Amino acid sequence: MGPSKPLKHSPPPHRPHGAGGVIDLALAKHATARHAAAAAGAARAPTLTVARWQRLLLLATAALLLASGAAWLAVHYLLGAGAGELPHPAEPWLMRLHGAGAFAALFAGGAMAGAHVQAGWRVSARLGRQRGSGIALVSLLSLTVLSAYLLYYFAPEAWRGLMGWIHAGLGAALAGTGLWHARRRLLSWRKP
Ligand code: HEM
Ligand code: HEM
């Protein structure tokens, strides 16, 4: 057997500075597509950070708080102590329901503070929307909870009526702002 011919070297499989031409073009296209996919994923992130059970809990607690609060105002001022009568028997029951909704709402708000607010803050910069209503939502939630605390523990009789109306106004504004903030998700028929 004669001496074997020296093997022809094939080009190294990886070139750190790029092969130029078609391969570079393909790599660049791939990288662009990956960036676009990542950006699209990030834009959808807030939808993913609000789990279905969280959205349902927020809606259910908002409905319970609004209904029990509004019913209490109607009964209290039309039939009960606010109309100069004896307190109506429904008044304490409506406040018990309202209290149950309030505890659940605090849990739901805490669940949102854990992940959604941070993710929403980052994504809202890119989306160019929802940051204002997000800030309004956090502020109104804090003020509503503060007014509820004052109403429960520090309400002198002379101030109670006014404080109750202020609290109810803040609560109604909170519910309205929440619906506005989540309108795109609530109006879409997409599956979660
Ligand atoms: C500074 C605070 C916040 C920011 C920057 C923020 C940002 C965002 C953004 C960017 C979206 C996506 C909207 C879209 O796709 O149109 C969103 C959706 C949403 N946010 Fe917020 N958010 C904040 C606070 C909150 C709070 C405190 C709550 C509730 C207590 C909340 C509840 C929701 C809900 C329910 C959605 C709809 C998404 C879904 O249901 O999947 N957000 N938010
Ligand atoms: C995060 C949301 C809310 C929390 C934590 C909360 C909590 C409370 C608490 C602790 C009380 C005092 C209960 C008592 O004295 O026995 C109260 C009273 C009341 N709340 Fe709310 N509430 C919220 C939202 C709302 C909303 C959305 C409304 C809308 C109508 C509302 C209307 C009222 C009314 C009318 C009262 C009775 C006021 C009075 O005694 O003069 N609340 N709430």
Describe, in plain words, how this protein is organized in 3D.
The protein is mostly helical. Helix content is 76%, strand content 0%. The protein has seven helices and no strands. Helix 1 packs across helix 4, helix 2 (52-78) runs antiparallel to helix 6 (157-181) and helix 5 (131-153) runs antiparallel to helix 6 (157-181). It is elongated and about 55 Å long. Residues 1-10 and 14-35 have low confidence and may be disordered. Bound molecules: protoporphyrin IX containing FE (HEM) (2 copies). One protoporphyrin IX containing FE binds next to helix 1, helix 2, helix 3, helix 4 and helix 5.
Tell me the layout of helices and strands.
Blueprint: H1 21-49, H2 52-78, H3 90-114, H4 116-127, H5 131-153, H6 157-181, H7 183-187
Helix pairs in contact: 1-4, 2-3, 2-6, 5-6
The structure holds protoporphyrin IX containing FE (2 copies).
Residue-averaged pLDDT:
82
Distance between the termini: 72 Å
Bound molecules: protoporphyrin IX containing FE
**Unreliable stretches, pLDDT < 50, 5 or more residues?**
1-10, 14-35
Q: Major sheet, described briefly?
A: none
Beta-strand proportion: under 5%
Task: Give the total of beta strands.
Answer: 0
Name the helicity range. over 70%
Structural class: mainly alpha
What is the compact description of this entry?
Residues 1-20 are annotated as: Disordered. The chain has 192 residues and is an all-alpha fold. Helix content is 76%, strand content 0%.
